[in-house]
Amino acid sequence: MSGMELRRLRGGVTEAEGFLASGVRAGIRSQGLDLALLYCEEGAVPSAGAFTTSLTRAAPVVITMNHLRRERRLGAVLANSGCANSFTGERGRRDAERMAGLTAELLGLRTHQVGVASTGMIGTFLPMEKVERGIREAVARLSSSRRASREAARAILTTDRGPKEVAVSVETEDGTTVTIAGMAKGAGMIRPRLKTATMLVFLTTDARVDPLFLRSSLQASVDGSLNMITVDNDTSTNDMVLMMASGRAGNRELKRRDRGFQLGLDFVLRELAREIVRGAEGATRLMEVRVKNARRGEARKAALAVAGSNLLKAALFGGDPNWGRIVAALGYSGARFDPGKLTLKVKSRRGEATLVEGGRPLGGPELPEAVEVMREDEVIFEIDLKAGEEEATAWGCDLTYEYVRINSRYRT
Prior knowledge:
Elements lengths: L6 E3 L9 E6 L10 E6 L4 E8 L6 H13 L1 E2 L1 E6 L7 H19 L6 E6 L8 H13 L5 H10 L8 E8 L5 E9 L8 E2 L4 E6 L5 H13 L16 E6 L13 H20 L7 E9 L4 H9 L2 H8 L5 H10 L10 E6 L2 E7 L2 E2 L6 H6 L4 E7 L5 E8 L3 H8 L4
Parallel strand pairs: 6-7, 11-12, 13-17
Antiparallel strand pairs: 1-8, 2-3, 3-6, 4-5, 4-10, 4-12, 8-9, 9-11, 13-18, 14-15, 14-17, 15-16
Helix pairs in contact: 1-2, 2-3, 5-6, 7-9
């Protein structure tokens, strides 16, 4: 490996040196693995997080934010599926703190050195007897194996179709090879608004880093990836991203922006973000929206408005190149541009078709070339606003009958 070259690895969070993982069945859900544990053998190490900005944050989010503020170091992360522990009042806070406390006790850490996360039904309480038994089993089964990483990734899933894992190696600017890895869950209630979805992302690296560097690098990467995806425009009460750095790679401590490290982190989060959208509830097509030549501060607005349009998402499901949906979304996005200069194209592996050029619609009502392009399971809409120099990319998916079916009886 030379320069800033990335090498994708086959594994997950245990690819980074110094990390162990496990996934067990505690019985929180009706079936399957439902409790994941991630542990650093170095103890409490530099860590950073990004959390939902919702005013109705779940108990584990509040607890973990407080833990990170105290020391900016974590030694373990415990996550459960099957119960969000959200809107559960004082009992929910006690349960989240107990999860952290028992995990810390068993691993020789302090309570504030453990992060906790939950996903599942809002307004239900955790079955703590089952959770505590599960924690003990998860500690006993900690391993650096590929299987352990995979089981941890499966244990955090709810309506997801499968686990999401990404790992890469990359060189830092001092020439040291480091590993960055992550696992994620998320299928519905996805429009993260994360600040230093339901979406959970856990990241590991063996790079040696300063905690403040890690926080700024993570936030920069989140802004260009997880904060640019939408499934249904609903922001969860439980969205959380946590990252731990073991330091085992032995590089010079990273204290300011490092191009290699940022490249690797950006890649991992972007791939996880795309996998979340691709595997969303009922989704059959991935939509990528590329906006270019926007005014300063407005490319993101335009891209997210288009990716989040329910009308466009429905058209995407039917393979209908209804460019009017895109024009309408751009109009209410808040981005300023001259509609008479707008150019819009649709692209896929089957080719590309221009829908609007210089503000003028092209083709007949059926747009046969565009229909052919949209037969693929990954479709790109390229939008040129011709209003400035800024660009942004957002990702979304189609809106299907299956999505409605899943969410029409989520509680029942």
